[in-house]
Specification:
This protein has 15 helices and 3 strands. It has about 300 residues and is mostly helical. β1 and β2 form a beta hairpin. The protein starts with a helix and ends with a helix.
């Protein structure tokens, strides 16, 4: 009886480890390169999702997400993206001259910054705004100084899955504004890219941040280090409607109740497409489609 109990306990303890090893293997296995038509089809479906969910999406005043839609429209020259972006811009930005996020959409414009009025924002939003404006007063804040440190996420947000990608995004804004020593920033960019690659290797949860990690590698010139399986995983994540979400179902208990992964671990929920994940998916697919187009042009020349 005692041996049987010990055996049951051993199997119970080992099952999560075996499952994790299986997920790691599936996440990093070698597969053939994704065909460009698959990327183009995924992009078109994701844009269709955005248009189909236009009204709901436009209730979300998330500047970073709409900046991604704007960039996607510029990359693809897709009038559908441009139209919905312009609707967002007219609704939230046109008559709001003091919006701290205007710099995302009008890079050469001036934005007044009052650090005291930004205390309610998350750390990474403050870093984004600092990177966009290189505001001296904002740059003196302790939380900005700490985010300039490569080990910021390990020391301050060790369990935040998106911390490193957010830090890299803020750094990219700084680089665009020449806000810091170029060599130091270039070195830190490489360090953060390596961290993100490790996260993609060892964190196989197919959730929002998974897309964000691949997106940041591609967007910072490290698309060649993105495994084909990682791209395939993101394609597999895309719903039948064309969007992406932040919940990976592991077991369906009913139509509306699943158990699965989310950004903080495991929970009961239901796979649901979100603008947050889909905007990132649209930008990723736009960049990948552009890279393919550029490669084809180079081969023709």
């Amino acid at each position: 009886m005692k041996k049987r109990t010990l055996l049951v306990l051993f199997i119970t303890a080992m099952t999560p480890l075996i499952f994790y090893i299986f997920l790691i293997f599936e996440n990093n296995k070698s597969i053939n390169e994704i065909h460009p038509k698959v990327i183009s089809h995924s992009l078109d479906r994701s844009i269709t999702w955005l248009i189909d969910n236009r009204e709901k999406s436009l209730t979300q005043d998330s500047a970073i997400l709409w900046w991604m839609i704007k960039r996607s429209s510029e990359i693809t020259n897709d009038h559908r993206l441009l139209d919905i972006y312009n609707e967002y811009k007219n609704k939230y930005m046109a008559n709001n001259l003091y919006n701290v996020w205007r710099k995302l959409f009008t890079p050469y414009g001036k934005t007044k910054i009052n650090p005291d009025s930004l205390n309610h924002l998350p750390d990474y939003n403050l870093y984004f705004i600092y990177g966009l404006t290189c505001n001296t007063e904002l740059g003196q804040l302790d939380i900005i100084q700490r985010q300039k440190n490569t080990n910021f996420c390990r020391d301050t947000h060790p369990i935040s899955p998106a911390c490193v990608t957010h830090q890299l995004m803020g750094l990219r804004f700084r680089q665009a504004q020449n806000c810091g020593d170029k060599k130091v920033m270039a070195s830190q960019e490489k360090d953060l890219q390596r961290m993100i690659k490790r996260q993609l290797t060892w964190d196989p949860r197919l959730i929002d941040v998974y897309i964000q990690r691949v997106l940041m590698l591609v967007d910072t010139g490290r698309g060649d280090e993105v495994k084909n399986q990682w791209l395939q995983n993101i394609l597999n994540m895309q719903s039948n409607e064309g969007g992406w979400g932040d919940f990976q179902s592991l077991l369906a208990l009913s139509d509306t109740r699943h158990i699965g992964f989310y950004s903080r671990g495991i929970k009961f929920g239901k796979p649901t497409d979100t603008l947050h994940a889909t905007a990132q998916g649209i930008l990723l697919m736009s960049l990948l489609a552009q890279d393919t187009e550029d490669s084809e042009k180079s081969e023709e020349e």
